[in-house]
Design a protein that fits this description.
Rossmann fold, 5-stranded parallel β-sheet, disordered C terminus, 2 domains, alpha/beta, two-stranded antiparallel sheet
Length: 481
């Protein structure tokens, strides 16, 4: 079990979407069909919120493409942003991964092509060293000199060298592009040893997490040096994060969409996963099954299913964003780590309090401080879209019972008496008896699930959560959602 989401997700090469919990293979198929028909340089952006599985999708997508004989290069922008020039990192990733690849040309390995890319890239990178720095290294910008006396001479040399430098840079850029073009358009063999010609797909992940200057310079490098037939770039990012990043450089008044259109030909959004699928995905991502397997009593058998039902329904009712859903599971995982294996988790009550804490903090604090009762919580749910239908369902009845069990026994007893009276009334609608019976079974002493005073049992662990600071939530607030 992990507090941070697990990264070691198994992606079988032969069936890359076998363990896909979010049903995204149709999206991957559509994108693959698009890339298969491209005969031009192209940049595709995949936009999806933080925490929605972009990295996993990109790796699955890569294996699907490779299975269909595409040559793929993976580049994690965040892991490489310590390097000064993104071009150097990108050239290194391309050449090293091609050298390690089993894909071969008709004549053998890509040895010649890789060698040419390396050579042209090294020369180009040297040419791209800022000209002022070159002048300084030649002593022309010696801090000890009297600039009033050398200014005219310096400007003359600077103008002349700038023109010559531009010509040389342009020549080296053309040579570098030529080396890339020969690599991207060459005929190669697939697994069946058949000749094939498909574009090189460069998949760039976590562009929205790296240094702003690095991310924007990387986009510039792709635009200027990789605008070549046979090269397709697939960028994965959270557009809100990218917008925040761009604003730190150019200010809040910049048109983010307009800026990104300079570099990106087409943007595609990953389909939003259904709530139940995303909840199951988060269970796997945080390896919560390990916690349930460690439980020492049969009374905890239903904890997992109760949590899945509760989180699924509450996320729907409170229209909880995916990123905030992940925050809820981070907090749940911390609570798991604080709960001994022989102690009950009180799944429904925990789920309700965590969701309300993240969705309506004022309501949460009023409830845990006993300023309001269960009626206000139920009213809050009723006002949400689908809230009434949920409360009238079996799961809603269970939720209501556990809200009541947050009280001490004297208040639970009062509520139980009202439910007993309702069960004997002749005015009960035909669809209500089962719901009342569900509530009565849960709040009846000595019942299988009975446990009054839940709030005082859960509250100390919830208060401990206040001492933990979730920096990912802070990032979300900075980005405006």
């Amino acid at each position: 079990m992990k507090i941070k989401p697990a990264d070691d997700f198994e992606i079988p090469y032969g069936e890359p979407f076998k363990n896909d919990k979010l049903g995204r293979e149709p999206a991957a198929d559509a994108l693959k069909d698009l890339l298969s028909n491209l005969d031009e340089p192209f940049v595709l952006a995949i936009d999806s919120q933080y925490g929605t599985g972009k990295t996993t999708f990109l790796e699955m997508f890569r294996k699907k493409l490779e299975k269909d004989s595409f040559r793929c290069i993976s580049f994690n922008a965040w892991e490489n942003d310590f390097i000064g020039d993104p071009l150097a990192a990108l050239i290194g990733a391309i050449t090293s991964q091609v050298e390690e690849s089993s894909v071969k040309t008709i004549k053998g390995k890509f040895t010649k092509e890789v060698k040419n890319i390396k050579k042209a890239g090294e020369i180009l990178l040297k040419r791209l060293i800022p000209f002022a720095l070159k002048l300084a290294s030649q002593g022309l910008l010696d801090p000890g000199k009297d600039y009033d006396k050398v200014f005219d001479a310096l400007m003359g040399k600077l103008a002349s060298k700038s023109i010559n430098e531009y010509k040389k840079q342009k020549e080296e850029v053309d040579k570098f592009k030529d080396a890339l073009s020969k690599f991207s358009t060459v005929t190669y063999k697939n697994e069946n040893n058949e000749p094939i010609k498909k574009p090189v797909i460069v998949l760039i992940d976590e562009l929205d997490r790296c240094r702003p200057n690095f991310a924007l310079e990387l986009l510039e490098r792709i635009k200027h040096f990789f605008n070549i037939k046979g090269f397709v770039f697939v960028l994965a990012y959270d557009k809100n994060s990218m917008g925040s990043m761009i604003s730190t450089i150019y200010g809040n008044d910049l048109d983010v969409d307009g800026y990104l259109r300079r570099f990106i030909d087409l943007e595609s959004r990953l389909p939003e996963p259904k709530t139940d699928k995303y909840v199951n995905y988060l269970f796997d991502k945080f390896e919560l099954d390990k916690f349930f397997k460690s439980r020492k009593s049969n009374i905890h058998t239903f904890d997992k299913s109760h949590l899945q039902k509760a989180f699924t329904e509450l996320f729907k009712i409170y229209n909880t964003p995916l990123r905030k859903q992940e925050h809820c599971f981070i907090q749940l995982s911390i609570l798991f780590h604080m709960t001994p294996s022989d102690r009950p988790l009180h799944a429904f009550a925990v789920a309700l309090l965590i969701v309300i804490k993240n969705s309506d903090p004022k309501l949460y604090y009023r409830f845990v401080n006993e300023e309001i009762g269960h009626g206000e919580i139920l009213d809050s749910i009723r006002t949400k879209t689908g809230g009434i239908v949920f409360l009238e369902s079996d799961t809603g009845a269970i939720m209501e019972a556990y809200i009541v069990l947050c009280y001490e026994e004297d208040r639970v007893s009062e509520y139980r008496q009202k439910q007993d009276e309702l069960s004997k009334s002749n005015d009960i609608p035909q669809d209500k008896p089962d719901r009342i019976e569900i509530i009565r079974k849960i709040i009846t002493p000595n019942g299988y699930f009975y446990n009054s005073g839940l709030l005082n049992k859960i509250k100390p662990r919830l208060e401990l959560l206040e001492r933990f600071h979730d920096f990912t939530e802070e990032d979300e607030n900075k980005q405006g959602g």
